[in-house]
Automatic annotation (TrEMBL):
<keyword id="KW-0597">Phosphoprotein</keyword>
<keyword id="KW-0812">Transmembrane</keyword>
<dbReference type="Pfam" id="PF00512">
    <property type="entry name" value="HisKA"/>
</dbReference>
<keyword id="KW-0902">Two-component regulatory system</keyword>
<dbReference type="InterPro" id="IPR004358">
    <property type="entry name" value="Sig_transdc_His_kin-like_C"/>
</dbReference>
<keyword id="KW-0808">Transferase</keyword>
<dbReference type="InterPro" id="IPR003660">
    <property type="entry name" value="HAMP_dom"/>
</dbReference>
<protein>
    <recommendedName>
        <fullName>histidine kinase</fullName>
        <ecNumber>2.7.13.3</ecNumber>
    </recommendedName>
</protein>
<dbReference type="InterPro" id="IPR005467">
    <property type="entry name" value="His_kinase_dom"/>
</dbReference>
<feature type="domain" description="HAMP">
    <location>
        <begin position="194"/>
        <end position="246"/>
    </location>
</feature>
<dbReference type="Pfam" id="PF02518">
    <property type="entry name" value="HATPase_c"/>
</dbReference>
<dbReference type="InterPro" id="IPR003594">
    <property type="entry name" value="HATPase_dom"/>
</dbReference>
<dbReference type="InterPro" id="IPR036890">
    <property type="entry name" value="HATPase_C_sf"/>
</dbReference>
<feature type="domain" description="Histidine kinase">
    <location>
        <begin position="261"/>
        <end position="474"/>
    </location>
</feature>
<dbReference type="Pfam" id="PF00672">
    <property type="entry name" value="HAMP"/>
</dbReference>
<keyword id="KW-0472">Membrane</keyword>
<keyword id="KW-1133">Transmembrane helix</keyword>
Amino acid sequence: MRVPRGLRTRLVVGFVLVTAFGALTTAALTFHQARSAILERVQSSAVHDLRTQIDSLAPDLPSDPAPADLRALTLQLDRAGGSRDWRTAASFQDGPLVVAASAAPALPAQLKGAAAAATTSLVQRFQRDGRPWLAIAVPVRDATRPAARPPLVVFASFSLAAQQRDVDSLVTAARAGALPVVLAAILPALLAAGSVLRPVRRLRSATESMAAGELDTRITVTGDDELADLGRTFNTMAATLQRDTAVLRDMEARARRFAADVSHELRTPLAAMTAVTGLLDEDVAAGRMPPETAEAVGLVADETRRLARLVDDLMEVSRFDAGAAVLTLDEVDLAQLVRKTLALRHWQDRVPVDVPEGLRVRLDPRRMDVILANLVGNALRHGGPAATVRLRARAVPGGVALTVTDDGPGIAADLLPYVFDRFAKGEAARTRSEGSGLGLAIAYENARLHGGTLSAANAPDGGAVFTLTLPWNRP
């Protein structure tokens, strides 16, 4: 059975436990005081009654009473016990106990030993046959020698069963009274838990709303307790978060617009520069330029083409940010698409392909070409000069999985979580690299646009593994 662990349950259980503890503690203290009072009253009353009877009968005793005189005294005392039904005995000058003919009293040895030297009344409670008893020892002074040790000691004992029944009834009443108190505590416990948890539930609801993006969420705060302070702190935090988020979103939007505007403005002059560098490349190829000039022209041409690719990538990223990227779906043969992508970039001899023939998928061919080009190009670029790059595709439940692997050094552990971030480069120590740092980010966005996933990992035996999964049903 599942035990409820909610805060409401814990509060109610805690409240009830505290109430039960208080009720039981009160009952225990009351029982202890009542029991002590009952026994003290019985004890005092018994000593008083026995002393009264002795004072009325002792003057009739001779100064040197015989056993018959003592037996007569105990017989009279037994008859005077009344409802207590005590049994008495007498001892003169530490002599043997003399009792009436009816029965001998039950006396603990400790009391008999202490009574020999006692000058005042002694009492002792003890157990006999599993039941409580009370024993009394009353020294009787000689009126002619009041300073001397009392020569006569009268003993009495009687059962405390009746008092024990009274005590047991107190225990029963305490138990019976504690249960209604505990049950009655449940209602105020529920009310108290509700009053405590109501602002907590409001705070939880407000937190969930903020987590869902509703940053204008606020809660109504009443009172001056700790929960009210928590509510005010939440409202302050929410206001600060809303303000900071608005500022960050505005800055992000401006940065995106700036990148898009700059990329757009650069396209026209870059187109002209690319055309010019193309003509210059022809002159270099024809040998119509000095070697120094040809080298400079080649450098300018390479950098122009690199800048053009960067601008194209920035424009593509801007379309993703603006939500303007759309899919133009077509059913294609994946093996043919892969071979075409590799042939356009002259990679067909460098990349072994393992894609089943006739594996047809519905996707955007242009965007799939971008994904493949970026994954394979990244593997060729970072796998090392002698690295072997392999491309493999297989049908999987629900779609198709395509992997690009290499046997190079792999991806650094600190870079792996950020490999699809924009401008993340594997060769971070170099200030410049051939890639723009946007290729894998664009590939990731294109995979997501198809409703698929793109992940990166390191193979157990070395090298990087990029896995692209595309569902059969497009979003």
